[in-house]
Amino acid sequence: xxxxxxxxxxxxxxxxxxxxxxxxxxxxxxxxxxxxxxxxxxxxxxxxxxxxxxxxxxxxxxxxxxxxxxxxxxxxxxxxxxxxxxxxxxxxxxxxxxxxxxxxxxxxxxxxxxxxxxxxxxxxxxxxxxxxxxxxxxxxxxxxxxxxxxxxxxxxxxxxxxxxxxxxxxxxxxxxxxxxxxxxxxxxxxxxxxxxxxxxxxxxxxxxxxxxxxxxxxxxxxxxxxxxxxxxxxxxxxxxxxxxxxxxxxxxxxxxxxxxxxxxxxxxxxxxxxxxxxxxxxxxxxxxxxxxxxxxxxxxxxxxxxxxxxxxxxxxxxxxxxx
Length: 323
Ligand code: TXA
Ligand code: MG
Prior knowledge:
Elements: E1 3-5, H1 9-20, E2 25-27, E3 34-38, H2 42-52, E4 61-63, H3 67-71, H4 78-87, E5 92-97, E6 114-118, H5 123-132, E7 136-137, H6 152-159, E8 165-167, E9 179-182, E10 189-192, H7 198-205, H8 218-221, H9 223-230, E11 236-237, E12 247-251, E13 261-264, H10 271-291, E14 296-299, H11 307-319
The structure holds threonylcarbamoyladenylate and magnesium ion (MG).
């Protein structure tokens, strides 16, 4: 059962408690309804991918109550400061390098070293974000491949029963998603056209590169970027049916005997738990495995269903031949 919360003090307090408990809460923004989770809680973030039926991990936007809160977790620059002053709160998302002690889970950022941040212009969303006091990861609150929701009823039609609650914030005034700009390079790059026009952006930020080969989801479409992020130092062997003493084992369910080191993704073979721990597992097996002089990471098979597809997609990239 998904409850509908009123956009008043009691409703917001309930939503904050649910988010803090790792639950999913949909809320209105000026663009579309977002499916919110505590961005610092990898397990809650994994729940977003599961509820949406998103077949692969695509990085999520983190939402904040103010530019100050957002810029405390990324490395802003002069253009970002100017854009924030002009368009936040509002339908603009900026991709910036993660800050050194950024608490956002690696899963929310899909393992990238950048983070997409936004301050939405909706009074209820801002109250929720201020009361929660931390980053809220939120993609559009629809099943993957379906139309973005701009009314609570749309959210419930797609995700009813799969999420804890939706805050009734009325219809969304913008109705298309935020504009996404990448500010990590020398010139701003448009990754997704959206609620703030290119013309308006250029008036503040100067010329925008708008002909990036792939616009939406560029970060995911760029294999070079992904390879460098998902490939550990140690080679990865997939579908391990046995393991050697000079290998580190990525276990899913009862571990194969004989490994030099083991990281358990999920003893009970829970895909959401495994997804939440995947990046952490690869980091740890790589670092500790190299320290122990191990030669390889051997990964036990994960079912190719639900979040297992995303896990296998990432493991496949990690195991792909290095360029
Ligand atoms: O208006 C919106 O932006 C809505 C509301 C809820 O805020 N959210 C939304 O999220 O549209 P989503 O997940 O549907 O779209 C996020 C977009 C995707 O195209 C994703 O690839 C891109 O932002 N993105 C997120 N993080 C990124 C990153 N670190 N680098 C490049 N692109 C990123
Ligand atoms: Mg979407």
